[in-house]
Amino acid sequence: MRVYQQQGFTLIELMVVLVIIGIASAAVGLSIKPDPLQSLRKDAERLAQLLQVAQAEARADGRSITWRANAKGFAFNRYDETGQGIDDFRQDSQLRPRNWDTPSMQVRIEPRPRLVLNAEWINPPLQVVLSDGQHSLQVERTAAGQLRVVERP
Q1: CA–CA separation, 131 vs 24, rounded Å?
Q2: Using one digit for the tens of pLDDT, what is the confidence trace for 59-92?
Q3: 127, 135, 129: which is closest to 111 by C-alpha?
Q4: What is the pTM of this model?
Q5: Interior angle at CA 64, CA 62 and CA 39, nearest 5
Q6: Do 130 and 120 form a contact (C-beta atoms < 8 A)?
């Protein structure tokens, strides 16, 4: 008489393991809550990066760049090379006008109502406050020119 040793798993054992994995993943999936700041944070980080790009462009070119925003989106512009017309960067892949991902964005610039990026290497501190009505984030520029996103209480 020969005795055979088991060399694998039975179908029942595999099904039990799959059911346990399914229950565990469902429990984890239900416990994860969506981040209410996700789109606001994405907009703030994108703005910080684009302000850095615009600042570098203003320093390289020597012409000031103005940033304007409303509830739907934002745009950069400057006087063209002749000084007569406005360059709105529509053909620029980075500084082109953009829409916010956050619906009904509220924007406030502190300490003054306009944001102008010029060729100066040292600029006064600046804060751009972005709000979706419930949450607020701010993009801060230090005197050294560094930009960072900070959550507001």
Answers
A1: 37
A2: 888 888 899 998 899 999 988 777 677 888 888 8
A3: 127
A4: 0.72
A5: 125
A6: no
